[in-house]
């Protein structure tokens, strides 16, 4: 993506909720070279920040809510979490959790768009979000999969002021002229039970190798490594606990 640091309205963080935190640490450390650091404070509930060198790149957490699915979640940076939640509900979305303060790091909320895709809001204070984008092992793209693309486009334009390129094949989200994500229309190829969702993509040096490492680590490949016209090589993977995520070749614009 064309963003290289957290900016208001753009993706700033990716966070995995998982049933087995220790297994997730081992899997992603091998796959991406992450160095996980678990917050030992009891109030943190096992929250673990993954780093590449000194840069925070993502988080791994236990499941905190009953019925919470194993999944990767995407956070978007906002100036005022409370005001954004009000904008979400006014535009037809739903507030699912918060806003609530997270120590002195920032203010956090969970919401859903009108098509059912869940996302997070982050009002950064001492912690603005990821310290690295687009490099191997870090977040480099986010993708909305939805069955109602027009409704989704109207919602995100209203709430965040995003631009959306007019493309039947693959509309792209942008903010301030910088594209950071795309939108896929879910058709009959997607099982009915799969809800609308946001999918983070992480940059890797070698997409084929990442797919092999995923299966060797007990995960699975949902979309084989593929070269997309005018786009980098990509794959969609699933970790051993069931969370889906994408990878793409670092150095190629996503």
UniProtKB/TrEMBL annotation:
Pfam family, one: Glyoxalase
Domain VOC: from-to ranges: 10-124, 138-250
Protein name: VOC family protein
Species the sequence originates in: Streptomyces salinarius
């Amino acid at each position: 993506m064309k963003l290289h640091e957290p900016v208001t309205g753009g993706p700033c963080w990716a966070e995995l909720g998982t049933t087995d935190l220790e297994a997730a640490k081992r899997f992603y450390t091998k796959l991406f070279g992450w160095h996980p650091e678990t917050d030992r404070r009891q109030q943190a509930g096992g929250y673990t920040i993954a780093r590449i060198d000194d840069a925070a790149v993502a988080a791994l957490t236990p499941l905190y809510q009953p019925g919470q699915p194993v999944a990767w979640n995407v956070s978007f940076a906002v100036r005022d979490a409370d005001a954004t939640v009000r904008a979400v509900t006014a535009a037809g979305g739903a507030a699912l959790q918060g806003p609530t303060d997270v120590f002195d790091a920032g203010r956090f909320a969970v919401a859903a768009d009108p098509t059912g895709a869940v996302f997070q809001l982050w009002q950064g204070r001492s912690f603005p979000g990821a310290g690295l984008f687009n490099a191997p092992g870090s977040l480099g793209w986010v993708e909305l999969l939805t069955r109602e693309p027009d409704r989704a486009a109207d919602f995100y334009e209203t709430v965040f002021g995003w631009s959306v390129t007019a493309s039947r094949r693959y509309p792209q989200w942008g903010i301030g002229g910088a594209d950071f994500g795309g939108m896929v229309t879910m058709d009959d190829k997607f099982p009915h039970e799969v809800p609308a969702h946001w999918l983070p993509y992480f940059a890797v040096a070698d997409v084929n190798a990442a797919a092999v490492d995923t299966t060797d680590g007990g995960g699975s490949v949902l979309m084989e490594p593929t070269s997309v016209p005018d786009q980098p090589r990509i794959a969609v993977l699933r970790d051993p606990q069931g969370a889906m995520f994408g990878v793409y070749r670092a150095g190629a614009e996503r």
